[in-house]
Design a protein that fits this description.
Number of helices: 22
CATH architecture of the largest domain: Orthogonal Bundle
Radius of gyration: 33 Å
Structural class: mainly alpha
Strand content: under 5%
Strand order of the largest sheet: 1-2
CATH class of the largest domain: Mainly Alpha
Number of domains: 4
CATH superfamily of the largest domain: MetI-like
């Protein structure tokens, strides 16, 4: 449909057309996301296939030194004069083998079992127990062990404890061993490709870099490698490793009943995800999740768009020609965010809680009986409304600051042309101001929505998830998924369910982010505003 045909439609038909077009773009974006994901996996497998092909080529066309490099990395480099580089390659290989033999191999085995030995108890060893052959008898229950051991009396009446395997450490070190192994495989493939390359360069009488040349490149052409080496190691150690460990917990029964030192946890497959959707008789977990998810999305919608549009309107009013003392008005709004956010939230909590300032003020004015109490934060609906309104107090100033700069940069000739054509203020807003601001702040709006899905501070410091109800699993009526996750880990120590929720938060956030970003004008028409 052309723009001229669109203008001939009634307002109702225009709305229907826009709604249908939005659904179509949403569906295409949804499909394109999974298509792109599939292409990513295909490209990954293609790259792995090319690596195997290159290894085969190196073994087929390589000389004796290149073939030996398949067993002893760096031999080909040493033979061609790259002694320092070859020794480094060989040293890394030996260090990896040493790691696998000493601890890595056991870690790879343990991640499959997550431990075999639970905590057990036995009698304190002395001559009596040894004579009775009792030193080899162990018990899994401490009270039973104490009963049996007390029959010997004397020094043997005590019970000794032998702790079992620590499944969480087994998983962590197992993941580390897998990452190190994958890294070494990639390193091995790279070294073999370099071995055949340096052989071909030698045969062609081309110049081969020495150690000095390599160091010079690390400070010049490959300086990015020097700068990024330590940060990448840090990211792998402190971000990727814990993230993979957290994801794997979702496939275990890691909770308060299965943790070191009392009990091991084990792999249970997709059982936790089945429970999330109402299977395995765990309706409470499923019921809590979908109710908390609904409130999380409602909160994220209002917290994002109310702040966005109210901040935009206030910025337009302050920026309007004829308004005096613009800097002072902006300063008043900025003062509300000059104080740290958590201090503001805790202050509002004290204001609205029982016997707080609001309650005392209302009693002084005679608007409440002296025996009555304010229940804004004790009732679900009023608490949720209060959270959204207080978040406006905190979030609107940021939008004002953001949109003020954008409004100042909108070309004035657009408004002048619209006025000449007889466009009203409302038409100018929807045809010029709003599209321009959305074009610039589209990615910011998406980020804010995802940030509000994970907005831990507002809920934790203002209500701490209250009011609590019995029909929820360790959650309150104002809990978001992220605060419920926190409660499950800190209060309930149910790490497996918390991991499932963490994965679902990631899926939901990624889904909304990718779909919205792919359909935003900032992404589709990043060169020009139209």
């Amino acid at each position: 449909m052309t723009y001229t045909e669109y203008l001939t439609l009634t307002k109702k038909d225009q709305f229907k057309y826009k709604f249908k077009d939005s659904l179509d773009r949403f569906g295409h974006g949804f499909i394109n996301f999974f298509v792109g994901l599939g292409h990513g996996f295909i490209n990954l497998f293609k790259r792995i296939g090319r690596s195997f092909k290159e290894l085969g080529y190196a073994f087929k066309h390589g000389d004796i030194w290149t073939k030996i490099s398949f067993l002893f990395l760096g031999v080909s480099q040493i033979r061609r004069g790259q002694v320092f580089k070859g020794i480094c390659f060989l040293l890394i290989e030996f260090l990896f083998i040493f790691y696998i033999v000493v601890t890595g191999g056991l870690a790879l085995y343990n991640i499959g079992t997550l431990g075999n030995t639970s905590i057990h108890y036995y009698c304190s060893i002395d001559e009596q127990t040894i004579a009775a052959g009792f030193e080899n008898i162990v018990f899994t229950d401490q009270s039973t062990a104490l009963t049996y051991c007390s029959t010997f009396g004397g020094e043997a009446s005590g019970v000794a404890t032998q702790y079992g395997d620590n499944s969480s450490l087994f998983m962590l070190f197992g993941v580390l061993a897998i990452l190190i192994s994958i890294g070494f495989v990639a390193f091995y493939s790279s070294v073999i490709r370099k071995s055949i390359k340096v052989q071909e360069m030698k045969e062609a009488n081309l110049y081969i870099n020495g150690a000095f040349d390599d160091f010079k490149d690390l400070l010049d052409k490959k300086f990015y490698v020097t700068l990024l080496f330590l940060p990448i190691i840090g990211i792998c150690t402190f971000t990727i490793l814990p993230l993979i460990d957290m994801v794997l917990m979702a496939f275990t029964n890691y909770n308060s009943a299965h943790q070191y030192p009392t009990e091991m946890f084990s792999w249970i497959g997709l059982s936790n995800f089945v429970s999330l959707f109402g299977g395995n008789g765990s309706s409470l977990f499923s019921y809590t999740f979908f109710n908390v998810l609904a409130w999380t999305l409602i909160w994220a919608f209002f917290a994002t768009f109310l702040n966005y549009f109210l901040g935009m309107i206030l910025a337009m009013i302050i920026n309007k020609k004829g308004i005096k003392l613009k800097k002072i008005w902006r300063t008043f709004f900025v003062l509300s965010i000059a104080m740290p956010q958590f201090v503001s939230l805790m202050t509002w909590n004290k204001f609205l809680s029982v016997s707080g300032m609001v309650e005392l003020f209302m009693k002084e004015l005679g608007w409440m009986e002296s025996t009555a109490h304010i229940t804004i934060l004790q009732e679900a609906t009023s608490a949720r409304v209060a959270i959204i309104l207080i978040n406006i107090w905190i979030g609107v100033p940021y939008t004002i600051l953001t949109t003020t700069g954008i409004l100042m940069n909108i070309p004035s000739d657009l408004y002048e042309s619209a006025q000449i054509d007889g466009a009203s203020s409302v038409t100018q807003y929807f045809k010029i101001t709003l599209p321009y601001i959305l074009f610039v702040t589209g990615p910011y709006l998406i980020t804010q929505f995802v940030g509000n899905i994970n907005n831990f501070n507002v809920i934790f410091f203002l209500t701490n998830g209250a009011p609590y109800v019995q029909d929820y699993m360790r959650a309150g009526k104002t809990d978001l998924l992220v605060t419920w996750l926190y409660r499950l880990t800190v209060d309930d120590q149910n790490y497996s369910y918390a991991s499932v929720i963490g994965i679902m938060i990631f899926v939901i956030s990624a889904f909304f982010s990718l779909i919205a970003y792919r359909n935003s004008s900032a992404m589709k028409n990043e060169e020009n505003f139209a």
